[in-house]
Structures are given as C-alpha cells and as structure tokens.
Amino acid sequence: MAEQTEGLYAAHEKVYPQNVRGFFRRLKWVILLVAYGVYFLLPYLRWGDRQAVLFDIPGRQFFLFGLRVAPEDIIWLSMLLFIAAVALFFITSLAGRVFCGYFCFQTLWTDVFLKIEAWVEGGRSRRIRLDKQPFTTEKAVKKVSKHALWLVVALLTGITFTLYFRDAPTLWAEFVTGQAPTVAFFTAGLLTATTYSMAGWAREQVCTYMCPYARFQGAMFDNDTLIVAYDYNRGERTKGRQPPTKGESHEERVARGAGDCIDCGYCVKVCPTGIDIREGQQYQCITCGLCIDACNTIMRSQGFPEGLIRYTSENELEGGKTHHLRPKIIAYAVILVAAIGVLAYSVATQSLMNLNVAKVRNPNYILEPDGRIKNVYELRVNNKDQEAHRYRVSMAGLPHSDYEIQGGFREFEIDPGDNLTVKAYVWVDPKPLEAERTHFTFRAERIDVPEGQENIVRQGRATFFVPERQL
Ligand code: SF4
Ligand code: SF4
Fold first, then answer.
1. For residue 127, what pLDDT is reported?
2. Angle, alpha carbons 445-447-451 (nearest 5°)
3. Ligand 2 test: best mutation among 24, 236, 242, 266, most atoms within 8 Å of CB?
4. Confidence of residue 1 (pLDDT cuts 50, 70, 90)
C-alpha cells in the first residue's frame, strides 16, 4: 500500500477583509488622516527661506524647523534610536502591538489600498465572486482601475519621500521636466514599487512573515500586557457557541449555559490578517481592534453586553486585575523620560560653533633646515548658526613655537551652516622640550559678537610630536 505523506507547504489563502464600523475603525481613520497629512504636506512647510524639514545630504546637514543637525551631532541620532528602542519596549509591555495596529506604515498604507479595492470592486463577497469569475470586460475594467489607483498612491508616496531631500517645489519641477537627479528618480521608483507591492499585494504577509517585530514582541509581553482577546468563558460557557434562539432573552441564554458567541464569524471576516481571535493569542494579530468593533456590533444587535472581544490582559481574563503600574513599566518610563530630557537639554544647549582638530600623521613631523620641527594639523571650524560669522584661530600652550594657518590668514568668514577646513603649520625649537609629546590647544573664536554679548570660544586639544633623537 502506498504510504501517504502530508506536505508541509500550505499555499497562501487571500484575505478579503470585510468593512466594519465602530470606535476602533474611526480611531484608525483619524490616525491615518493625521499621518498622511504630516507625511504628504510636511515637505511644503517653509521655515524662513528654506524647507522646514530638509535632509540635505550633499550639504551633510539636516534641518528640522529651527534646528540644524550636522554630522558631528551624530550623538543625537544615537540618542534618538535609543529613545525609539525604549519607547517600543515601554509601549509593547503596556499595550502590546498597538504600534502595528494603528501607526505602522504597512498598516496605514494597506488600509488605504484596501479602501480603494473595496471602492472599485465592492464589498467582501463581491470581491470574492469577482476573483472567482472568468475574465470579462467588467472584471478587466475593475482590476485595471484598482491597480491604476494603487499606482497613483504608490507614486505619490515615492515622490513625496524624495521631497524631504531637496527643495520640494524645485524637485517637483525637475520631476515634471525630467531634469531631476538620477538618484531622485531611482528613489521615487523604488518607493513606488515597494509601496505598490507591499500594500497592494503582500499586505498581511508583511506582518506575518517579514516583520521581525512580530516574532520577538512576545518576549516583551507579560500577563498584564493589554491584548485583544476573546472572553472564552463568556463566549462558550458550558454549552459552547450557539446561533441565537428567537425570542430568548440574554438571561435565559445564560441560564441554559449557551455562550454569548453566536458563531456569526464577523470577527474573522473583518480581520486584516485573516485569523480567528477565538482560537487564542496568535502572533499574526496586530491588535487593530477591528474584531472588537465587529463583535460589539453583533452583541448590540442581540441585546447582549458588549466586550466579548475586548482589550484586556491575561490576568483580567482569568478573573484578576490588570496592573498597569508595574516595576518594568515604571523602569521603562523613567529611562524614557530621562533619555528624552538629556536629548532635549543637549539640543537646547548646543554650541553654535564647533572646532575639530586632527593631526596630520603622514608625515608625523618634518625636520626643517634651521633645526626646528614642523607638525601639521587639520582644523575644521563649523558655523552652526543660521547667519554668516567671522572667526579667528589662534594657538596656546606650546613654548618656543610659531604657527601659520594655510593661506597666511588667521581670520575668516564662514557661511551659515557651513564649515571651513584649514591646515595649521606649527614650528618648534625642540631643544627646550623635554618630552616626545607636548600637549597644547588651538582656539577658535567668533569675533563679530555684538557688544555686551558673551564671546563664543571653542578649544581643541592637540599634541606636538618631536622624535627622541632631536631632544
Ligand atoms: S484578531 Fe482582531 S485585533 Fe487581531 S488583527 Fe485580527 S481584527 Fe485585528
Ligand atoms: S463576532 Fe462575536 S459573536 Fe460573532 S463569531 Fe465573533 S466572537 Fe462570536
């Protein structure tokens, strides 16, 4: 007899989420509108004579409203990433995958693509029928219209992304006339393709198979974490789920042991990831709350209390209480507030001028014909202000020395947000020196400070090197 083997491969089954109305659906639309408003309109917001939010890669600077971020402010980016990580731990421990269900780009764009699909092809059962029916003119028109609209949204998404990296009106004009840089066309094309394929085709499979967060978020959960859950005891009671009985009150239903779940399947039909929440917690659940809206609609129609599916916790489901204020949450909150405070302080007290000193080590020193030793340094003065300023560079702390700044000048002007890199040549008579390495400082000073205001000075430490045999 031939041995029968069961394949491990299961083909993907397309999910056709049904429309639902309710509190969480409305909340999701509001969040989506705000998110889309910010994403699509922010590039057109002006701040003085420039774009309010601009990632100027060629100029190696970012502008966030009145703040200019230069490469030397990389610490801010590190702090921002740290804050994002702690915030993720904090929110996930407190409210589960609430980020996935309400704020994630994949969720927001999939929602819009699904709305377009439902608008063009109709409700859930119509869409299922349309996919099953043979290819007709009506089907072709609907499919082409849907994909054309998806592509418009994807293209706008891709182009908008590039507007954050170049003056938006200028780049739009360059796109229209075909004069935009190749990298802008490439980036817009890439974003268009990924948006179209991820939000249009892959949808819930991104959350289920691609997103790493879905896999490790369980490690941050505990019995007090908020989850979307089906109240099994109430839904099943002793006799399990049963269709509604005409004329029976809720009290009578409860008395005969029938569960409140009437097995209508509405909660499954509205789920964007296609799961049945009644089977317990599943990693595919993005806690969007749509099954709550669906079940509450059914409960209201039956005259049963709402909340058979609800935001709750394992502890609450087992008859206990949800403890929101627990040591882990408090610790995350304290770290989060402290990190945000440090970042805010660092940004608020940032210096409007920087001086970086680097020794030129090739060669490490030069022996001059008159017996003096020459060392060379690279000085970079950074004007982080929004106006041009004049600066003076000097040196101190190195006896028997002389120095010269490249080009023979010691004062210069730097444009707003720009920097100047110059070489500094330092000569020393080595005889009075006692060590191979002598520390000294370069000093950069803003010299156009209005009278009565505090002078802005930055110092950079440097080391003068003399070979041992010259001492
Ligand atoms: S089970 Fe409910 S909360 Fe979870 S993804 Fe599906 S509809 Fe959203
Ligand atoms: S929507 Fe509510 S009543 Fe209907 S199947 Fe789901 S849990 Fe049961």
1. 97
2. 125
3. 266
4. very low
Residues of the chain with CATH 2.60.40.10: 353-470
* Rounded Cα–Cα distance for residues 287 and 103 (Å): 11
Q: Give the ligand with the smallest distance to the CA of 277.
A: 1
What is the reported pLDDT for 280?
92
Query: Closest Cα to atom 6, ligand 1: which residue?
Result: 271
Q: What is the CATH number of domain 353-470?
A: 2.60.40.10
Q: Whose CA is nearest to atom 7 of ligand 1?
A: 271
Which atom, in ligand 1's list, is nearest to the CA of 284? 5
Q: What atom of ligand 1 comes closest to residue 274's alpha carbon? A: 6
pLDDT at 45 over 90: yes
Per-residue DSSP letters for 403-439?
Answer: EEETTS-SEEEE-TT-EEEEEEEEEE-STT--SSEEE
Alpha-carbon torsion (328, 329, 330, 335), positive or negative: positive
Whether the pTM exceeds 0.85: the reply is: no
> What is the per-residue pLDDT for 3?
55
Residue type, position 435, single letter = A
